[in-house]
Write a structure and sequence with these properties.
Blueprint (H helix, E strand, L loop, with lengths): L22 E4 L4 E4 L9 E6 L2 E5 L14 E6 L3 E8 L11 E4 L2 E4 L5 E4 L2 E8 L4 E4 L6 H12 L6 E8 L5 E7 L8 E7 L6 H14 L4 H9 E6 L4 H5 L22 H17 L3 E10 L3 E4 L11 H12 L7 E3 L7 H9 L2 E8 L4 H21 L1
Parallel strand pairs: 4-6, 14-15, 14-16, 16-19, 17-18
Antiparallel strand pairs: 1-2, 2-5, 3-4, 5-11, 6-10, 7-8, 7-11, 9-10, 12-13, 13-15, 17-19
Bound molecules: zinc ion.
Length: about 375
């Protein structure tokens, strides 16, 4: 258990409302919608008039952050334009600009196909027999994540070991990528986390780019893995991801409030695995990065720097990012964690630097890839010079 949070949160398991996986059928219009895939979220689909349907989208339980995630496929018997109006429970608003997957490729919906009246959002799509996927963020299911890291580690067995640390609440795999070269003994440890919050895919993309850079086989990455040990958790909340949750895990809880008593199996097993690794190798954590998404790019840091394992890291890293990313200004929000979030756990539990690495919901993928790569390279440079 890690203490020190002013505002503890009760992370006991709560009830979630199951989503019925199905194809909704507006028979007289020949229009269909389905949530029957990993990452799907659509709780109802009803006719409003001959050219418009209501999309009913509910969260897994409440109270919950306003991160109204939706994902469905839609098609029709005949080619025609059709309108869809989003309906959320009272108190919750539309957040994510729709992304469309057409013929296997994701793109943002054209802004001329979005209509806003007060806070009610309607979109127009040109339907036909082939399915269009409409989602709040691009879908990266647990299976997609697995395909990615399986490809990533191939041929790099000398630098990375892929392991399972256990299962989520509903029995999905909790993987870890364990990176180091040579002997793990006495190497300082860096922990990387992502997908505590299911729709936060842009943060996951930064995690992908960051980790790929650490495994790029460059001279620097080899030297880095000779000296340091990385524990990277690519999908902390696989149940939430596959069940199309707005924020919570299979236990109906925000896992990023459980970094104190570890009541949820995902955090409990991650903490246990980290603890075991530290003990076995006589190591300590120096840095923890937790990749998320929010409205804009921001780094949430702890105020306390003195007495941590890397008291100057944040300042050095942020100035290196500004020097190496064109026209980029770091947006830092420093505060001490009053709630049991991972960045507080790194500080209070390990005197380590903890940072929540947030990518904007709308940050373009090419920018994210660059941020991920530059931030990994600059981290390696600073830690190798230490
Ligand atoms: Zn988050």
């Amino acid at each position: 258990m890690v203490k020190g949070y002013k505002n503890p949160v009760d992370t006991s398991t709560k009830k979630i409302v199951a989503q019925n996986k199905q194809t909704f059928d507006l028979e007289d219009l020949g229009v269909f919608a389905s949530n029957d895939f990993d990452g799907g979220r659509l709780n109802g689909f009803v006719k409003y008039n001959d050219s418009t349907a209501i999309l009913i989208v509910n969260p897994e339980n409440t109270p919950i952050n306003n991160s109204a995630y939706y994902a469905f496929e839609t098609w029709s018997n005949t080619s025609k334009p059709f309108y869809f109006t989003f309906q959320y429970p009272k108190g919750y608003k539309h957040r994510y600009v729709p992304k469309l997957k057409i013929n296997g490729t994701w793109s943002l919906i054209d802004s001329t196909d979005i209509f806003k009246k007060d806070s009610i959002v309607t979109i127009k799509l040109n339907l036909g027999k082939s399915r269009i996927t409409v989602a709040g963020q691009e879908i990266q299911s647990s299976n997609d994540v697995k395909n990615w890291y399986t490809r990533l580690v191939k041929g790099k067995e000398g630098s990375v070991r892929l392991k399972s640390i256990g299962e989520s609440k509903m029995g999905r795999d909790l993987p870890v990528l364990d990176l180091y070269r040579g002997d793990a003994k006495n190497k300082e440890i860096i922990v990387l986390l992502t997908r505590q919050h299911p729709p936060e895919v842009t943060g996951y993309y930064a995690f992908q780019s960051f980790l790929s850079t650490l495994l790029s086989n460059s001279n620097m990455s080899k030297r880095f893995l000779d000296k340091y040990h990385i524990l990277a958790f690519p999908i902390v909340n696989p149940d939430g991801v596959d069940m199309g949750h707005w924020r919570h895990n299979g236990g109906g809880v925000d896992t990023n409030r459980d970094w104190s008593i570890y009541r949820q199996p995902e955090i409990k097993q991650i903490v246990k695995y980290i603890g075991k690794t530290l003990k076995k190798n006589n190591s300590k954590i120096v840095l923890g990065l937790d990749f998320h998404s929010t409205y804009h790019d921001v780094f949430y840091t702890n105020n306390i720097r003195e007495g941590t394992t890397l008291p100057n890291f944040i300042e050095q890293w942020f100035s290196a990012l500004e020097q190496n990313i064109p026209n980029y200004k770091v947006n830092e929000a420093a505060a001490n964690s009053t709630k049991p979030v991972s960045k507080g756990w790194f500080l209070y539990g390990h005197q380590a630097v903890g940072i929540t690495y947030e990518i904007g919901d709308k940050t373009p993928k090419t920018n994210i890839d660059l941020f991920g790569e530059v931030s990994a390279n600059e981290m390696m440079k600073i830690l190798l010079d230490k």
